[in-house]
């Protein structure tokens, strides 16, 4: 089966290959597990319900004689997101819904594609590309440019977040990170001090966000947690709160050197 995502990316479930519709030379090969996860998310998209981790463990790993784990699932989802963003789609294509599972963003437009049509549009023979296909190609490139701009914006926001965390933690003249709590082996910090009456609520939110994402921390790692409102008008109808969490490594000078970022969205059912 082949799917077209946002008229931009073709997903071939036979080879688990992501390919640009208007450029057959640009593609991303997913692992078998990542490909099966994306296929399950697409197949269950019409139900309106998220796909539970238990279902993915059974259908993607156990059914193929493999041992499932939360860490492996998170790794495969990360690979899918990287593959989609590298081809111009937004990183929020896959939404994590705490305590419930995963689902594709409802704003994605996904359609099936017959094999012969896929070959004609994505793998044309030399000197045999039909002239009447030119307008759809131009339209697809336009959508690609829009998705590329959104991806660039997401990258900039992430970089700014890391830079902000570095500045807060490294410069004594600026606002520092505030220690919130110790959860398992992880020291958790926030960008702003948490009032005493809200500390327990924040601790519970942090524990929930860390489940399946950050199991433990080595001595040179910390966790940064923040909750913000979503200003993006494209998604605020369905999502109103974004929770940011980062697992960051400290170098020999006790400075933050790199971070693994997580974004969680509060999904409003319609």
TrEMBL record:
Protein name per UniProt: OmpR/PhoB-type domain-containing protein
One MF annotation (Gene Ontology) recorded for this entry: DNA binding
Organism (species): Sodalis glossinidius (strain morsitans)
Keyword Protease: no
Pfam families linked: Trans_reg_C (PF00486)
Signal peptide: none
DNA-binding region in chain numbering: 1-106
Limits of the OmpR/PhoB-type domain: 1-106
Source taxonomy: Bacteria, Pseudomonadati, Pseudomonadota, Gammaproteobacteria, Enterobacterales
InterPro entries in UniProt: OmpR/PhoB-type_DNA-bd, Sig_transdc_resp-reg_C-effctor, WH-like_DNA-bd_sf
Transmembrane segments: 148-169
